Amino acid sequence: MNKPEVKLVDENGVRLDGRKLDELRPIKMDVGVLDKADGSAYIEHGKNRIIAAVYGPREAHPKHIALADRAVIKCRYHMAPFSVEERKSPAPSRRELELSKVIRESLETSIMSEVYPRTSIDIFIEILQSDGGSRCAGITAASLALADAGVPLKEIVAACAVCKIDGKIALDPSDIEDKQGDADLPIAFMPKSGVITLLQMDGSLTEEEFNQALDIGIAACKKINEIQVEALKRKYISVKEQAEERHEIQEAKA
Amino acid sequence: MTIFAEKKQLVAPGEVLAEGSYFPGENTYREGNKVYASRIGLAELVANKLIVVPLKGRYTPRVDDFVIGRVVDIAMSGWNVDISSPYPALLPLSETPASRAMAARKDLTLIFNVGDLVMAEVIAFDRTRDPLLTVRGRGLGKVSSGRVVRVSPAKIPRLIGRKGSMISLLKKATSCEIIVGQNGTVLVSGRQPKNEQVAAAAMYMIEREAHTRGLTDRVSEMMNRELR
Amino acid sequence: MSTTPQQPPIGKIEQKGIVDLLAKGRRIDERKLTDYRDLKIETGLVQKANGSAMVNLGKTKVMTGIKIELGKPFPDTPNQGVLTVNAEFVPFASPAFEPGPPSEGAIELARVVDRGIRESKAIGLEALCVEPKKQVVIVFVDVYVLDHDGNLIDAAAISALAALLTSKMRRYEMEGEEVRTSDELVPLPVHNEPVAVTTAKIDGNMILDPCLEEELVMSSRLTVTTGRDGSICAMQKGGLGTFTDQEIRQAVKTAIEKGKEIRETIRGATAGR
Q: Nearest C-alpha of chain B: how many angstroms from A23?
């Protein structure tokens, strides 16, 4: 038997996880979580648990993929076998291959790749636990990892998905809303330039519903971008504050 | 003309630094009437130029830089050297002291072998070519002894200090010989391993806290404490 | 791993030519910005397939073959038939194509075409269940790109739809424990007509149905697939460029209108099945 369909939104506009239609799930971000990678970031978005890492700019391998006037960007979106309910084979699926492509394109726009010709900048996104909107959370983390690695960027890219559940447009679908909803619309956005770098959709939306969803998605991306910049600076500010605190203690002793 | 960032303010990529006819320097870019940061770092205004001093990043070679690298491969008539930059460096046989070049033509390993550390200078580098090194010059050549410390190249200026003040402090306090490569590789030689260790610890401390106030005093205090 | 593709083999002067013409509102083949190239649809070429359609969109040639067979359902949907879309970029279709497993471009195309058919509910998967949990009808949609002159996605979607609309299948019925396969052929039930419309952005100009040279110059593309009632069932942005939200809304509006026109053409070519 197919699983019985659940009502996703109640009469008061409250969703299964208690959120309102325009509410984001809780988000937590940390930058510089890995030692060997040049840049890294960890994100918890809803129940998503994702690590993104960046190596580069470094020598391009194999040599023939190198471009004469800019860096080549490589991107791998991959789900761990234990990240979903039923164990997933570690071999890359067609979905992961498609997502690797669209994610690379969404980030490549923000990278000033002409600064490092003939090199390669490698982005790795590992989904440790998946909970709806993983490609968006992956982009959010990867953009932070790029900034952490010191890769020159026009700006940091933020991403979020919008869905339609029980006929209503709602922000940031959880896993069950993603699976049972009527539409899923992942968006990646650069707030300062005001442009969209990733846009996909599947499901059913009228033109009006789409316009509404686009507005909500863009607004959410702007909010997520603020959290990203704060997480990026926090890593460096905390060292500064600790050091200065010690300095003040020493001065007081003297 | 307005400046939005304060001196030494921590800025992230995409943040507006200034509006008006400022010149966009290192790690910034201009779009329309505004200048933005392109890397995370500390904003600075040098004359009319806005720059961001990066907190992280690989070593980008500059002509005349002194670097310490590791030989990774033997090429046609020279050696491939890893100088911790996105670009592999080449040390051609012609850039070794003439006296030894003749003999080595048949066997390059007579001069340098894979795994050797070399002190060299960058003599050429541009967008179309990998960096070229030379070991012809005083103080250049194979490294025979010493302890290797690697720090982020972005922190080397802080490690050296204004007019070499910071590095002199380290040398004096630990009685060690310290040779600093612009690419982040540093060589430390001391009479006692303990001295070398303290020198290394001081360097890691500087690397971690490069962008804070009162660093010189804290480093000095730590070294004196450890070597008492 | 997805890697930045090699730079397209188009010279700077040719690029400039296309961009300059567009600034004057013209295209290299004299089309209007929203014109599609000549569209020719031929169905029934492959008798061994349940359905087939050869599409010529300008010089782009894409053929789709449909095979309908009995098979096992997916474990998480035991009462549904199966729709599976695959795309092959045949090596002779372009000097840039090499034999081997599907490239990310081929995978993306297949998945976008699949979304159009699946999300528009063009194929009723529940009706294709023969024996719950054990035997269902599997619809194989195989897209074969034969000549690449730009806008493969739209051409592929048109050929997939035309092939489905003209597909015939045997009737499968349970007789006690066995499945009885009828000798007579019945049309495959198709309940919607999804049409993909791709907009390409070149230097700020938005054009429909880019030919190959235009694709080599474009910064990004947006494919919008709509169904019979004008609702959107799939969207995919591609390329390294970006869109403002205004440009996206405009592209959606255009796609809904253009989709109607193309749907009429497809209906005309597949009528009297």
A: 26
Asked whether residue B59 is domain-assigned, the answer is no
Q: Two tokens at A183? A: 């539409």
Identify the sign of the CA torsion C49, C52, C56, C57.
Answer: negative
Query: Rounded to 5 degrees, what angle do the CA atoms B98, B104, B107 make?
Result: 165
Distance from CA of C230 to the nearest CA of A (A): 7
Place of tokens 């063009």: C122
Question: Can you tell me the distance from the alpha carbon of C159 to that of C144, in angstroms, rounded to the nearest whole number?
Answer: 10
User: Residue B86 is nearest to which of A59, A229, A237, comparing CB atoms?
Assistant: A59
CATH code: domain of residue C24: 3.30.230.70
Same domain, yes or no, for B128 and B108? yes
Contacting residues for C42 by C-beta, under 8 A, at least 6 apart: C53, C54, C55, C269
Inter-chain contact A72–C4, Cβ cutoff 8 Å?
Answer: yes
The tokens for C90 are: 């045949």
In a domain, C1, yes or no: no
Task: Among B79, B107, B142, give the residue marking a domain's end.
Answer: B142
What are the tens digits of pLDDT across the range B76-114?
Answer: 889 999 999 999 999 999 999 876 667 667 788 888 999
Residues 6+ apart with CB under 8 A from B203: B149, B151, B159, B170, B186
The residues that bridge with A185 in the sheet, in sequence order, are: A162
* Rounded CA separation B29/B31 (Å): 7
Chain B partners (3+ C-beta pairs within 8 A): A
Domain assignment of residue B152, given as a range = 147-226
Q: Do chains B and A touch (3 or more CB pairs under 8 A)?
A: yes
For CA atoms C22, C24, C30, C34, give the dihedral sign.
Answer: positive
Take residue A171 and report the two structure tokens written for it: 């922000």
Q: In Å, how far is A242's CA from the nearest CA of chain C?
A: 40
Whether residue A31 contacts residue A37, with contact meaning beta carbons closer than 8 Å, is answered with no
Task: Please tell me the pTM assigned to this model.
Answer: 0.91
Does residue C220 sit within a domain?
yes
When divided into structural domains, chain A yields a total of: 1
Q: Which of C215, C222, C218, C214 is nearest to C238 (CA)?
A: C222
Closest CA to B198 of B218, B179, B174, B165: B174
Q: Indicate the number of domains in chain B.
A: 3
- SS3 at position B222: helix
Nearest CA in chain B to A246: B218
Domain with residue B163: its CATH number is: 3.30.1370.10
Closest-CA residue of A relative to C256 is A207
**A105 chain-C contacts, CB cut-off 8 A:** 237-240
Angle B129-B134-B135 from CA coordinates, rounded to 5°: 155
pLDDT tens for each residue of A93-136? 999 999 999 999 999 999 999 999 999 999 999 999 999 999 99
Tell me the two tokens of residue C255. Answer: 């796609």
CA C246 → CA A34, A178, A209, C202, C233, distances in Å?
39, 26, 15, 16, 20
- How far, in Å, CA of A40 to CA of A42, rounded? 7
Residues A192-226: pLDDT tens digits? 999 999 999 999 999 999 999 999 999 999 999 99
Q: Which of B124, B142, B160 is the last residue of a domain?
A: B142
DSSP A64-114: GG--SSS-EEEEEEEE-TTSSSSPPPSSPPHHHHHHHHHHHHHHHTTB-GG
Instruction: Supply the CATH number for residue B40's domain.
Output: 2.40.50.100
Q: Tell me what ipTM this predicted complex has.
A: 0.91
Strands A72-79 and A119-129: parallel
Q: Does B57 touch chain A (CB under 8 A)?
A: yes
